[in-house]
Structures are given as C-alpha cells and as structure tokens.
Amino acid sequence: EVDLEERLGELDLRSDSDVLPPTDSTPEILKRALSGLSARWKNWWIRGILTLAMISVFFLIIYLGSFMLMLLVLSIQVKCYHEIITIGYRVYHSYDLPWFRSLSWYFLLCVNYFFYGETVADYFATFVQRREQLQFLIRYHRFISFALYLTGFCMFVLSLVKKHYRLQFYMFAWTHVTLLITVTQSHLVIQNLFEGMIWFLVPISSVICNDITAYIFGFFFGRTPLIKLSPKKTWEGFIGGFFSTVVFGFIFSYFLAQHQYFVCPVEYNSETNRFVTECEPSELFQIKKYSVPPLLQAVLGWETVNMYPFQMHSIALSTFASLIGPFGGFFASGFKRAFKIKDFADTIPGHGGIMDRFDCQYLMATFVHVYITSFIRGPNPSKLLKQLLILQPEQQLSVYKTLKSHLVEKGILQPSLRG
C-alpha cells in the first residue's frame, strides 16, 4: 500500500486520472437551438444569453432593496466557499478524512458569526439596545466568537490520525485560506454597501462591464496574447475593456448620483424595522461646475462642465476594475492550472462556477473599502450618537460634562450657557 504522505509529497507527478473531469451543465433546449453553430460561436451565444439573464436578476434584486443585496452577497459567499472546498476535497482525495467537511462548514459558521455580529453591533445599536438577550450576545460577542473557534480547533486536533497527519494539515490550511478569500471579502462588500448603494453598484458593475467588453473586444479583435496563465486573454481585449469600463463607470455614476436611493448611507430604522436610504446628499452627490483643461477645450468646445464630484472618484474605481481587477482572474487561472481543472464548478453554463465570475469582485471589494476609508469617509456623528446611546446614564452624563467643558474652553458655547 502506497503511503499517503509520500503520495502528497509528489503532487506534481499525479497522473491524468487525478484531474477533475469537466462537465457540461448547458440545458438541452439551448444545446439543440445552437446545434448548427461552431463551438466558438456556440460558446458566444451561451455566455451572452446567461450573462443577460444574470444581469436581469441582479437588477431585480437591486429593486427589492439593500437587504436582498446583503442576502445575495451571503449566498454568493457560501457558494464560492463550497466550490473551493470541494476542489480541495476532490484533488487531495480527502474522502476518508474524519470530520473534514463538517469542520469546514463549522469554521464558516464561526467566522460569519464573528463578522456579522460586528456588523450588528455597529449598524443596529438602537435595535440591540431594546432587547436584553441581544445585549448579552453583543457585549460578549468576541469572547463567544473565540470560544466557538476554539471548539473547532480542539475538534480538529482530536480528529488527527497518524497516517493522515500531513493531509489533514493541508486541508486545515486550505479551509482557512478559503475563509480569508471569501468571508472577509464578502464582509467588506457589505460594509461598502452600508456607505451607500452607489459604492456597491459602481464597483461591481465596473468589473462586470470590464469582463463583458474585454471578452467582446478579445473575441472580435484579439490577436496578441496577454498572459500565459490565460491564453485566451489578449491585449486588444484588455485595452478595449479598460476604455469601455472607464466610460461606462463615468456615465453610470452620473445616473445613480441623481437618486437618494443610491447615494444615501443604508441605515436601519428601528421604528419601522426597515432599512432606509433617506438623507441630504453629501457634496459628493451635488452638481458642481468644473473648468475643462485647455487641451480638451479645443476638442470638446466647452470651457466648463457640470458634473458630480463622485464621477471623478468613479474614474479611479473603473481604472482599478479594468487594470488591476483582472489580476484576480489571472490568480484564479493560475490556481486552476495548478490543480488541473478548467472551472471551479459547472454552476453557470458557459461561465463555469460562481467563483469563476466573482474572482475579480473580491479584489475590487478590498480596494473600494480601502479607498473609502482613505479618501472619503470622515467622522460619522450619526454612528457616534448610536454608540453613546448604548452607554449607561452615568456614562452618558460624564461624556456630556467632558464635551461641555471642552466647548466652553474653545469659546464655542454662548456665555449664557456656561452655567
């Protein structure tokens, strides 16, 4: 009998029988309708039809509101996690590992409990304050989260079997890297959404636009290979996708910036038990007049132009989506080549798995979060007030006295209020 650890030490020497077999999930009715086309054009139509269907569903979910978008993000996170874990399970022949699949899903629940608990504490403070049982969970949230993770850690140690040591630690690391990629990034997506739906829609739509336009330019004009990891990617598709995405992001931002529904921070109203998006739009979303650079005045014939300041930020977001975002796809391509698989799964005909479509989105989510915290977000009085309301009365009084003393020293309070 071949020792399992020796076999894992020679992963690069695996035979072709270890490669995950490709599958075809294309509906039969679609196959029959496209049966007369070449493989190239058949794939074009399948991808196009499914892309339009997914975009339509996405717009429907946007119409249903921010809560449905959060559920969508959570669903995509779980599916991406499942696809990556399944690859590890099959590639490393982990069928006989004790508790592996159960522990993988247990760790997913633990990490989600931690991150979403933090979100509840930040954005639902007023709601939590009214329910004593939730106050206990929020007060000791991090301790409970650590205890849950520690339980899983101990279960993993207890499950160690001598002949599977190396494989079990391979899969333990695989699980944690997958959690880092999927859960933490999806948490950032939701954080961006709370800043205003526009910070969710513009980045995601820019990545989708770049995927589509790069594919179209590459399909019709592609001649020059871009990177060896993805032989079908071309410079023509990359450059065409870049310019198309920047233009799309600029125009799309203009339409979104006109509506409170998209620009206002998403807040939970404890009185109505609903998410609300009502506010006085910030300066980012108010029309301003800008001078056109002299070089462009001759071309455009305009000396000034009226636009939203956010449109300038959209250029930065679109540029990242089209120049750096594709590297998330290249990374995924390298991952698939390393394990000799074509796609992460066969969930979407012509596209592969959910992870095949969202490999660039996770990288984009991190950039948007860093961009907001670095260049956009300032002090948030509303959020600070929610945190103050959670304090005990004597703590609130202490804060009041300290703030009053500070304002008196600054000369901000009127003399009549200095008593």
UniProtKB/TrEMBL annotation:
Membrane spanning residue stretches: 44-76, 97-116, 136-158, 170-190, 196-222, 234-257, 310-332
Compartments where located: Membrane
Entry keyword annotation includes Transferase: yes
Main subcellular location: membrane
The reaction(s) this protein catalyses: 1-octadecanoyl-2-(9Z,12Z-octadecadienoyl)-sn-glycero-3-phosphate + CTP + H(+) = 1-octadecanoyl-2-(9Z,12Z-octadecadienoyl)-sn-glycero-3-cytidine-5'-diphosphate + diphosphate; a 1,2-diacyl-sn-glycero-3-phosphate + CTP + H(+) = a CDP-1,2-diacyl-sn-glycerol + diphosphate; 1-octadecanoyl-2-(5Z,8Z,11Z,14Z-eicosatetraenoyl)-sn-glycero-3-phosphate + CTP + H(+) = 1-octadecanoyl-2-(5Z,8Z,11Z,14Z-eicosatetraenoyl)-sn-glycero-3-cytidine-5'-diphosphate + diphosphate; 1-octadecanoyl-2-(9Z-octadecenoyl)-sn-glycero-3-phosphate + CTP + H(+) = 1-octadecanoyl-2-(9Z-octadecenoyl)-sn-glycero-3-cytidine-5'-diphosphate + diphosphate
BP GO annotations: phospholipid biosynthetic process
GO cellular component terms, A-Z: endoplasmic reticulum membrane
GO molecular function: phosphatidate cytidylyltransferase activity
Functional pathway: Phospholipid metabolism; CDP-diacylglycerol biosynthesis; CDP-diacylglycerol from sn-glycerol 3-phosphate: step 3/3; Lipid metabolism
Alphabetically ordered keywords of this record: Lipid biosynthesis, Lipid metabolism, Membrane, Nucleotidyltransferase, Phospholipid biosynthesis, Phospholipid metabolism, Transferase, Transmembrane, Transmembrane helix
Source organism, top-level taxon: Eukaryota
Family from the record: Belongs to the CDS family.
Protein name: Phosphatidate cytidylyltransferase
